[in-house]
Amino acid sequence: MTSLVVFVDPLRLASVLAVKPTLAMLAQCPAEVTWLPMRAPKEFRQPPALTDTVRERHQRVRQAYRDHDNARYAAWQGLPAGMPACQVDRDLLDYALLLLSRDAKAPGLLLEVARHWFGSSTVPIDAQWLVAASGCTDLQLNYSREGNSTLVAHWALVADLGIFDAPAFLAGDHLFIGRQHLPAIETLLTGGTPFPTN
């Protein structure tokens, strides 16, 4: 059975939108799956300036198009797409995801974080919220003991793999960046060859 590692940024809508299609794919072609946190680059959302460059205008237009496309896709999936309004303890969130990385509850936590974050709630995603959402009752205690070293090792792994955006998928030895590659990943998981051969 091929292993699949899914890197998701729960605070980026474009990344979270891959969770449900990935679960649907895994229902058809089971794999040993691991869900890991990833911090995708910030999106370009600067307000127009008086001395706006052509590059900045193009970046803003492309980002607006992506936002619109993601909002439509989120509505189709039943996920909110509002502007975040709460604080988040990002290190603790990433650590909670690492704790659940091989647990069947991991995708549920990812979606719950996204519903809260993009649902424009003002309740912070802090230790209390994460304990309730993840079921990890010893989250804070474990984080104080090993959280920093665990996260440092995880980010070193991400850097070694060359992952620069989320969602990213490591299927066996093949790395894919972006949810548009799910058909190729499904082909790989079912024993096919998604790459042309001579």
Q: How does this structure look, described?
A:
With 198 residues, this protein is of the alpha+beta class. It is 51% helix and 10% strand. It has a 4-stranded mixed sheet with strand order 2-1-3-4. A hairpin with a 2-residue loop joins strand 3 and strand 4 (174-177). Helix 4 packs across helix 7 (139-161). The longest helix is centred in the N-terminal third of the chain and has 24 residues, at 54-77. The two termini are 26 Å apart. The relative contact order is 0.19. The model has no long low-confidence stretch (mean pLDDT 91).
How are the secondary structure elements laid out?
Elements: E1 3-8, H1 13-16, H2 19-28, E2 32-37, H3 54-77, H4 90-99, H5 106-118, H6 127-134, H7 139-161, E3 168-171, E4 174-177, H8 182-189
Parallel strand pairs: 1-2
Antiparallel strand pairs: 1-3, 3-4
Helix pairs in contact: 4-7
Could you give a short account of the major beta sheet? 4 strands, mixed
Q: Which percent range fits the helix content?
A: 40-55%
Radius of gyration (Å): 18 Å
Query: Could you tell me the mean pLDDT?
Result: 91
Overall SS class: alpha+beta
User: What is the overall number of helices?
Assistant: 8
Low-confidence stretches: none
Q: List the helices and strands in order.
A: EHHEHHHHHEEH
